[in-house]
């Protein structure tokens, strides 16, 4: 029927809306491919979520590392960070439920929601009236959630949940790729700085590569520092925190 983008009562977008959503998700994928860091990728995801999921005014991305440390890595406004922070402080809320228990959590009206009373009261006081959270990814002991907020009650409907799930699936792939690239770059950086430190010791003390590495390892053990930190100190200052070999 003209004027409607979804089939009545199903929450499933009609073809025109499907085409529009497919275009937005394709644009998102292309945009995220060009981001050069995890932080930039997450910020792009948060911004795109507001423009893609019906009803969303603000968005934030929460990350739980080792299933314990929870923090917000990206957000579209100070309000999103503030509401996320309330959940961490009181230890309850839609975001934490989405991360640990359910794929999608919907709060139509903060003022009548009874599942997380300590959170919903403070969220309403901050100006958030409804919320939609999606489990974004589960990777070993690291978890994530996409949190969408609105100042209006009942801002999110079936279409919001449907579009949000599709969006979260695309975002999770991009986020996983960005994290893998970051880890690879970190590994290369560590290898390079250790190689530079070994080169300094080899040239200065006429050591073999294995002997130079052993010097770094002893310095790491004696000072209770990571080997890469010892290597960085040596390349920056020319000095070991351990006595140099004879």
UniProtKB/TrEMBL annotation:
Pfam family, one: ANTAR
Keywords: Kinase, Transcription, Transcription regulation, Transferase
Domain ANTAR: 174-235
InterPro entries listed in its UniProt record: ANTAR, CheY-like_superfamily, GAF, GAF-like_dom_sf, GAF_ANTAR, WH-like_DNA-bd_sf
SMART domains xref list: ANTAR (SM01012), GAF (SM00065)
Superkingdom assignment: Bacteria
Protein name as annotated: GAF and ANTAR domain-containing protein
Organism whose genome encodes this protein: Micromonospora trifolii
